[in-house]
Amino acid sequence: MDEQYRDTNGQTVLHCAAKHRNVLKYLINECNCDIMVTDKDGIPFLHYAVKHTNVVKYLINECNCDIMVTDKDGVPFLHYVASEGLLDVLECMVMNINDYIMDEQYRDTNGQTVLHCAVKHINVLKYLINECNCDIMVTDKDGIPFLHYVAREGLLDVLKCMVMNINGDIMDEQYRDTNGQTVLHCAVKHINVLKYLINECNCDIMVTDKDGIPFLHYVAKEGLLDVLKCMVMTINGHIMNKKYHDTNGQTVLHCAVKHMNVLKHLINECNCDIMVTDKDGVPFLHYVTSEGLLDVLKCMVMNINGHIMDKKYHDTYGRTVLHYAVEHIDVLKYFINECNCDIMTRDKYGHTLLHNVASEGLLDVLKCMVMNINGHIMDKQYRDTKGWTVLHYAVKHINVLKYLINECKCDILVTDKDGVPFLHYVASEGLLDVLKCMVMNINGHIMDKQYRDTNGRTVLHCAVKHINVLKYLINECNCDIMVTDKNGVPFLHYVASEGLLDVLKCMVMNINGHIMDKQYRDTNGQTVLHCAVKHINVLKYLINECNCDIMVTDKDGVPFLHYVASEGLLDVLECMVMNINGHIMDEQYRDTNGQTVLHCAVKHINVLKYLINECKCDIMVTDKDGVPFLHYVAREGLLDVLKCMVMNINGHIMDKQYRDTNGRTVLHCAVKHINVLKYLIKECICDIMVTDKDGVPFLHYVASEGLLDVLKCMVMNINGHIMDEQYCNTNGQTVLHCAVKHINVVKYLIKE
């Protein structure tokens, strides 16, 4: 019986004798034929005998054939017998293996057990389940239980056969497959199976899959209306109440949103509430709107009163159904035209839908809305809680702005709650394109006084940080850079005071070369130089490039140079010196009080040093009363200033040439300041006997005034007999005569 004995079909003599038990016995027992031989297609000899029970019994019982032998596709003989529905053969085989013949070791290469193979043969299944105790929850290689497989295939008879073999609650959670689906999910396409599972087996239609989605919601999402109707009778009338939210907070309505017929049934027959909210507090009505489902919306409207958009239908964000419809023009039109929705309804922040649309730049939506309110849709009553109008919200969208201004006649000078016109707001934000769009709608002089805001600022003041906007306003719109704010300060001065050099340069080309002359003083009488005093770079530009006169005076007649000196602004002074001749401090530079720059700088040592050492200022220059600056310093007791000055004149700075118009020397002027006197006498070798214009020595003057401390200071500077005749004045009086009215001085002169 070896291979040479095969016929053209590849069969051996053993295959040909499969129908005849007596011939088989002879071939096997006498001729030693191999019962495991296969034909040319790899089919074992046992498969040939499958339809002959007596032969199969012989082969299994007498010849010990393995019933799990597989064909070329890996299908065991046992599974092959089950799939063919050969109950007699199966019964014959069962006695030859252990009681649990259906456990996992008997799966075929597809992962199917004998139950899966016998699924089309009820009698075989009954035998396997009842007699062989097969587990109907055994899973295939994909983890799908046999029970679920039967349900998915819609095999109701098989299902009924199986139910009697497990407890009544066969559908509880322990019977989920690896996808988390129950037998109900698997049977969803077979109404008859579902009815049986729900009505006879008491399956819970709210059982959830692994994602927490109830079976009811799954059915709705798939649009299975017949299945839904089948299920409704098994729970109370209000099947859609809150306890039926899934883990996403969605109700059955949310799940059915894409299936009109299912929605109609849920709303009309099951009385579902279309305002039921999801976990985020968004009503189903709003959800439908946000998705732009107009047909669904129309289906729903008939179930609530005509004013479906009133305030009670705001979601947790305070938004109405209109806010959600903003991206869907057809839905908006329906709401506004058919449902009479108010486009000015506000959300919880006070933002109207109209403003929201403008801020998003939705021009088509805006056009759709405009026809539903009066022509002046932008008037004051339509401001939000910030006081902003629709123009403010549309500021980033040129096309929307053009429409609002040109078609809707919006007023670009409308003010916010702080009194700032929209035009000014645009300038302050530097929105040049927006500004250009607006200019064509008002007269050429858009910046005149009537356009000031509540702070008295013009559009120029608002645009000060944006050079490109300023250039446009000045060059194209002919704005006047000398326009004043409410305090009378010209815009030019404001720019200088802020140190905005780039802005200043931009402006200079628009006025004549002498932009700083008297006509440009502000209400305080200050010129642009005074305003720029804290900004060196601006000052340099004004002086060097614009030829500003540093001797220009304020309203009090004080030159700018003197003002700088009085403030002690050395850096500013140094910047200015290069623009006038070396003797900048001569008489032509006195102010209306007759004071020179030295007088003004008297409190600032560093400035004085610079004026004296670098600018060669004359410390003996006199004021309008003929008092030299040196005497002024002494009279004020400014010792540090005096020391600073001494190095600039010869050792005898106090001789007769230094008398003032009253004939007084520096000693006379310093008489009230002991520290100054000591310095003048000891360090500067001043002569205490110097006389005034009346021939009275300084010593006698001191005695006549009773200035004992001054006298004591002076005594150490002459010999012990200071009172002899040589010290008589022109009237022949000695110091004693002069001191006669002052007892303490007389005592000192006599005793000491």
Automatic annotation (TrEMBL):
Keywords: ANK repeat, Repeat
SMART domains: ANK
InterPro entries in alphabetical order: Ankyrin_rpt, Ankyrin_rpt-contain_sf
Domain of life: Eukaryota
Record carries keyword Endoplasmic reticulum: no
SUPFAM superfamilies: Ankyrin repeat
Pfam family, one: Ank
Name of protein: Uncharacterized protein
Lineage: Eukaryota, Metazoa, Porifera, Demospongiae, Heteroscleromorpha
